[in-house]
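Hello, quick one for you while I still have it in my head. No rush at all, and the record is pasted right below.
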Amino acid sequence: MSVAFRREGDDEHMEPKFELPIPPGPNWVTARGLRLTREKVEALEAVDLSGMAEEDAKKHGRLLRYWRTRLATAELRPVATGDAVAFGCRVTYRINGRDKTVVLVGDDEADPAEGRISFSAPLARAMMDATVGETVDFAGKPDAVEIVDIAVAVEP
């Protein structure tokens, strides 16, 4: 009989489950980011898997492996001086005539809705090392972003 007509089971046709992707590059974290990562690992380790469905337990295991890896590879960065845009700074910038403020944080701590962007985001990379009053190119436009203020972000 041809293999085309043989069916071993539905499992062989299911979409494979992969590990959660680890962002490329260094795993820089703020003190807040390191604390949040530790808390995430502790919370995941505290979950009782005994009554959990097999697929849910596998999903939980993938999450736990991701966060343990992120904790193991975390590089706590020194507090920025605030003289120039750097990791951990709160930056107020002007783009298209509007002022906006963001904090440059690690990949796992980033939350654009709360004003936290990853240091690896295009905007953060464009502003890195700039000083107050300096303009930087962004999105293919020269002098698109003006640095208005830089402060050390002290976050709980």
Q: What stands out?
A: The two ends are 67 Å apart (CA to CA). The beta strands are 28-29, 75-76, 89-95, 98-105, 116-118, 135-138, 141-152. The first helix runs from residue 31 to 45.
